[in-house]
Amino acid sequence: MIASRRHMIAATLAGGTLLPAIARGEIFASGYHPQASLIADGVWLVRGADEAIDFTNGGAIANAVLIATDTGTVLIDPGPSLAYGKALAALSRNVTGMDVARVYITHLHPDHSFGAGAFDPAIVHALPATRHDLESEGSGFSDAMYRMLADWMAGTHVAIPQGDVAPGEATFGGRSFEIYAMDGHSNGDLVILDKATGTLIGGDLLFHDRAPATPHADIARWLTALDRLEGIAHKLLVPGHGPPDSDGTSIAQTRDWLTWLHDSLHDAVLTGKDMTEAGAMAIPTRFADLKVARYELQRSVSHYYPKLEAQLLPRID
Question: Following DSSP, what letter does each residue of 153-177 receive, concatenated?
Fold first, then answer.
């Protein structure tokens, strides 16, 4: 069955809430069990599930990064909920032997940001644009996350970062970072380079082996950000979703998908396709290995189509 626009939007909001109550209880009882993999000296990656947000994964779909410093762990992206943030705090103690001493949020989306409530707000940092967007849109995100994830979200609130991040060199606990302020996936996309290892953490400007999500995206600005990322000397890329990348595949994949999406949606509007037809269009075989490609295409249709129709098919009366 091809979903209608209403069904596509409902699916985006409702997630896994249609699971039987017994199944939901069994899944929730297992709790979060994040695992950390050493990817560079003093840098651990906590992989998110390569899936859509759903009750079965507790919303833990985004990557997080732990970086050891002399005064504590730097955590980049604390995940979707209070419970997940607490699980990352415990994981930090296990892998670095130290508590989380600083938290960076790369952008506003709740799978990356809502776990910040597990930490002292004074140590949570983000770009000013991210703080602004969390203040204006956080409550709506919270409603949707509680609807999708129910008990996983217990006690979770929208934690507003107290520290503003500025581009340039930053030092914490004897470890040097280069901070970049970009945009395109959202109004504020924080990128962090760990200078000691050349690990470049790109947040959701980068998707690897997973189709990019576009709820707040400006594709032209995003493509510009990818060009900037490509020009930064690095040894390893950490995307917001998907495995780490040592050869730039994540930049190429993200650019390719966004360019195809932009051109395909414009063509769909100009050839008279409605939203349902656009969401069902053929996806090129070169994207066959990208996780959740159909799901993200349909979400992108819901994000862009009404505006594109108004722009490309103006009223003539």
Answer: GTT---PPP-EEP-SEEEEETTEEE
Question: Which pairs from 29-32 meet CB under 8 Å and 24+ separation?
Answer: 31/83, 31/87, 32/58, 32/60, 32/83, 32/84, 32/87
Residue 272: left (phi > 0), alpha (psi -120 to 50), or beta? left
pLDDT recorded at residue 14: 38
Query: If you compute the radius of gyration of the chain from its CA atoms, what whole number of angstroms results?
Result: 19
> Phi, psi (5° rounding) for residue 182?
-125, -175
Q: Token match 């790109």: residue?
A: 202
pLDDT at 315: 76
Q: What pLDDT shows up at residue 316?
A: 76
**Other Cβ atoms closer than 10 A to 153:** 22
* Helix, strand, coil percent values for the chain (each to nearest 5): 45, 20, 35
**CA pair distance 15, 288, nearest whole angstrom:** 23
Written as one string, the DSSP assignment of 55-78 is: GGGTT--S-EEEEEETTEEEEE--
Domains of the chain: residue spans and CATH: 5-312 (3.60.15.10)
**3-state DSSP call for residue 182?**
strand
Predicted structure pTM score = 0.92
Beta-bridge partner residues of 66: 44, 75
Strand order in the sheet with 236-241: 168-172, 175-182, 189-194, 199-207, 236-241
State the maximum Cα–Cα separation within the chain, in Å, rounded to a whole number.
Answer: 68
Which residues of the chain fall short of a pLDDT of 50?
1-17
